[in-house]
Specification:
With 289 residues, this protein is of the alpha/beta class. The strands form two sheets. An eight-stranded mixed sheet has the order 5-1-6-11-7-10-8-9, sandwiched between helices. A three-stranded antiparallel sheet has the order 2-3-4. The protein is 35% helix and 25% strand. It has two domains: 51-135 and 237-271, 3-Layer(aba) Sandwich (D-Maltodextrin-Binding Protein, domain 2), CATH 3.40.190; 136-235, Periplasmic binding protein-like II (D-Maltodextrin-Binding Protein, domain 2), CATH 3.40.190.10. The protein has helices at residues 2-20, 75-86, 101-106, 121-124, 167-181, 195-203, 214-222, 245-261, 263-271; strands spanning 51-56, 59-60, 64-66, 72-73, 90-95, 112-118, 128-142, 159-163, 188-192, 209-213, 226-242.
Amino acid sequence: MRGRTVVVLMIATAVLALMMGSPGSPSRAAPAAVYPTSPVIGSPPLISAGKLMAATNATIPPYQFVDSSGKLQGMRIELGEELAKRLGLKMEWFNVGFETHIPGLQSSRWDVSITGMFYTPERARILYMIPYELQAISISVARGNPLRIASTRDLAGRRVAVEIGGYEFRQITRINEEQVAAGLRPMEIRTFSTFADAYQALRAGQVDAVVSVDVTAKFYQDRGEFDRAVSGLAGSPATLAFRSKDVAFAVLRVLNQMRRDGFYDRLFDKYGVAKMSPGQLLELRGPDL
């Protein structure tokens, strides 16, 4: 009788182990996100009660773009929607040019900029920023790379398109100045309101190359439209940027929750976006931190 009891207990234990999975087992399900039934942060510090008002510039596929039906899509759109749900808020998007994001935060037009705003110490002196992804810039060229561009030195004397006002513009301007100081011919840097306009100029043969972020350049290459001649330039963390420290801290808590429950990894892997160091908690940077 005792032997039968031991066998039953052993079978039950084995079944339970199969259902739960052993520690570190890939079969173990990630804990489900818990969505609050009411807002976890109010107004103030939010601009509008019950809403997370977010600026994006939906011209950077696959990060953020507008699909054929006019709907916002992309990795950062999914991220923003999930952030709002976990804060018990309704998301309200403002699809505006990147050059308006920082002035809009400073004038309280929106709570957060959800885009690839690169981290710089200068920006962290006026905004609250959460570095949440790794990013660098690429050089896109016509299919087949007919000009044989293999480095930024090959852009000397060439027409180069870039979105105005962003990290990419500042970096290619810096690189150009350094190369000119070294005796190379200057690039003809042409600025556009959006990356989409810059790539259209390359498509039309009006420029020789486009400087954009790595994942966007890869997106166009994978679609067979352009080649990515150079990548990994001037790497820096991309951030979410806020006007309010309290809102930033609330989002930071949710982002680290996403890191723990696996949502962050699944989303970034889905789009092939480079993640922050595994196991490293995200941190807030800002004027008084």
